[in-house]
Amino acid sequence: MTRLSKSVAAFMALILATMFAQLAHAQADNFVDEASAKAIAEIETARLALEQSQNPEVRSFAQKMIDDHTRNRDELAQLAQQNNLEVSDDARLMDRAKAWILQWREGENFDEAYANNQVNAHQQTIDIYQDYIEEGQDENLRQYAEKSLPMLEEHLKQAEQLAQRFGGEQGQRSDRAQETRTQERGQERTQQNERNQQGLQQREEQQTERQRQDQIQREERQPQR
Questions:
Q1: How far apart are the C-alpha atoms of 191 and 179, rounded to whole Å?
Q2: Which fold has domain 32-173?
Q3: Which of 57, 69, 105, 222 could join 39 via S-S bond, C-beta 3.0 to 4.6 A?
Q4: Roughly what angle, to the nearest 10 degrees, separates helices 56-82 and 3-52?
């Protein structure tokens, strides 16, 4: 291998390493934002439950959601700061969380609506954490997600019990529906991995072509002997 070829290979390796590092950092930033926004939605919805519900079981569950998700979010924020990850400010996180906060209309059965909301919300949150455990590159965040997952699964179990108690639609969630969700998540991850690989391959091909063109130009500029 010529000196020029070695230099090109080393430069390409550096480019690829930088690309992978940028991808991992962006993935970590996105997880922190999604998990933080989910925690805010849980806390705000639980506060609404304390205002609207008179059921001791619902109120106890809501207070637990405030306590657990506040503590979990604070831990995530500290971890993000220690790892120099970019976290959106509270205003932007609140805007993102609004889509998940329970929208309740007066006259509806609040306890049923809250229980159904919590089943859906915790299913979605668990998906976010499981995806990062399986695909995430930041080891500290993966450990955080792994440690948090049993708590979220316990929340989901309690929410399903509430939904069954109040006759909500989520209380009748079947094993087949859960299996379908798992299959869909697997398909989504596969498609995302394929898109990521295609993007990396395209960028690598573009960089290789630029290197080839640069080499041709350098050779053309060299004086002929």
A1: 19
A2: Ferritin (1.20.1260)
A3: 69
A4: 150
